[in-house]
Amino acid sequence: MKKFLLSTALLAIVGGLVVLGFLLFRDQQGPQISLTPAEGRISPRTVFKLTAKDTNSGVKALSVRVKKNSREFIALDQQWADKLVSRTEEFSMEKAEKMGEGTVELIVKATDSSFAAFGKGNTSTRSFTLRLDSQPPRISVTTLPPYVRRGGSACIAYTVNEDVRQTGVTVNDLYFPGYRQADGSYLCFFAFPFYEDTNTYAPRVTAEDEAGNVTSISLAVKPLHVAFKEDTIRLPDSFLDNKMQDFTDEFPGQMSSLERFLKVNRDLRKANRAALLSIGRKTSPAMLWSGRFLNLPNASNRAGFADHRAYIYNGQQVDDQYHLGLDMASIARAPIPAANNGTVVFADDMGIYGLCVVVDHGLGLQTLYAHLSEIHVKDGDTVQRGDILGLTGTTGMAGGDHLHFGVILSGLPVQPLEWLDPRWIKHNITDRLER
Fold first, then answer.
1. What is the DSSP code string of 186-231?
2. CA atoms within 13 A of residue 185's CA, in its CB half-sphere
3. How far is it, in rounded angstroms, from Cα 109 to Cα 47?
4. 37 preceded by cis ω (within 30°)?
5. What is d(CA 326, CA 323) in angstroms, rounded to the nearest whole number?
6. With 90 as the cut, is the pLDDT of residue 301 above it?
7. Res 78: pLDDT
8. Could you tell me the pTM of the whole model?
9. For residues 114 and 120, what is the distance between their CA atoms, to the nearest angstrom?
10. Which helix (H) or strand (E) covers residue 240, if one does?
11. C-beta of residue 296 within 8 angstroms of C-beta of residue 403
12. Cβ neighbours of residue 139 under 8 Å, at least 6 residues apart?
């Protein structure tokens, strides 16, 4: 009996040792570590994204130690009781600003929840070497303060003392990129939005360097107030019933012609303007145009830029919108010349604009040709001033055959009359950039 009990005890001990050995040695790999950014230049405000994965035992601890010469600090130290397979943590290292510029080392440790190392778990360690840069870029505007009319355009040239991720002019939530030129300077076309006022218009030049340091300085300008026209558009049933048939695909279902009109005039208009912002980024970093911009030949103006339109149905105002271009009419199906040299970046249907062509002239400057009956170009075509883009028509929200001509800066409609005036271009663009 004693031998039996002794044998049983020995078997239990051996079994326990086997189980313990299995638990101790079945997972000998530490977590996988990845860090973004993992190289290059950083600033004390750079936000890092650290991910650790361990499919066998889960991750229980993460730490980041920052070293520069003899100085160091802890940027991250996290531990968890549960056993998630993947952990992602974000951290920054504001304390590094006191270390001064130069090379820093980030030592990242990740520990899993295994029984390895007698319950301590497996630990992986990775070291990342990066360049700490805490100095923001310096911007120097080299052109004189421009005059800019409400709804109009302006340009500046400027320099930045180091390579940057992005730079340009901001106007509240609008961004007009600057484009680097062959001599290292930057050119930026920007606008005085039609909905701003001289009291609220406050453009700023910004630059973000490769490390993430940002400079933002006030841009000296001379803003000029312009009052825009108030207009009334009456909506007869004949127009609504006929025109709204063209928009049943965008807004299907049972609704009155007026209800569909309001969806088109509000929702589709908003979506089309968002599309123009996206198209505005499809631009050349070089100026593609030269000389004067062409108008539609033998045309009369039917509506102006930023006209504030009240839409009237059965004697009641049902909506209001801004007309952001020039309406020009000559003969039906008139040939439409490209206003200047450039590249076609859009040639298709665009909601309220109907069949539409957008030509890029570089540096965010684009022209828009809407309500066409035919399009004679395609995306990617290079056009010269005077090349025929298509024919005028009544597509989209047009009430009669005409051309809606628009000028766009980085997606924002601006006053086309300025760009159709050779003297304005000379005094406000070319002369300024040649100095």
1. EEEEEE--TT--TTT---EEEEEETTS-EEEEEPP-EEE--PPPEE
2. 12
3. 18
4. yes
5. 8
6. no
7. 94
8. 0.84
9. 7
10. helix 237-243
11. yes
12. 158, 159, 160, 167, 205, 207, 215, 217
**What average pLDDT is seen over the chain?**
92
- With 0-12 / 13-18 / 19 or more C-beta atoms within 10 angstroms meaning exposed / middle / buried, residue 56 is middle
- What is the distance of C-alpha 239 from the center of its chain? 37
Model confidence at 354: pLDDT above 60:
yes
The tokens for 385 are 């001033």
Other residues' Cβ atoms within 10 Å of the Cβ of residue 58: 20
The string of pLDDT tens digits covering residues 111-138 is: 999 978 656 899 999 999 999 998 999 9
How does pLDDT run across 62-88, given as a tens digit for each residue? 999 999 998 999 999 999 988 899 999
The type of residue at 257 is: S
Count of Cβ atoms closer than 10 Å to residue 409 Cβ: 24
Cα 57 from Cα 279, distance rounded (Å) = 48
pLDDT at 109 over 50: yes
Predicted confidence (pLDDT) at residue 351 exceeds the cutoff of 90: yes
Beta strands in 133-193 (DSSP E): 139-141, 147-149, 153-160, 164-171, 174-177, 179-180, 186-191
Taking 60 as the threshold, does the pLDDT of residue 423 lie above it?
A: yes
- Provide the residue type at 74 as one letter: I
Structure tokens at 244: 């709204």
Backbone angles phi, psi at 248, to 5 degrees: -70, -25
In contact, 132 and 213? CB cutoff 8 Å: no
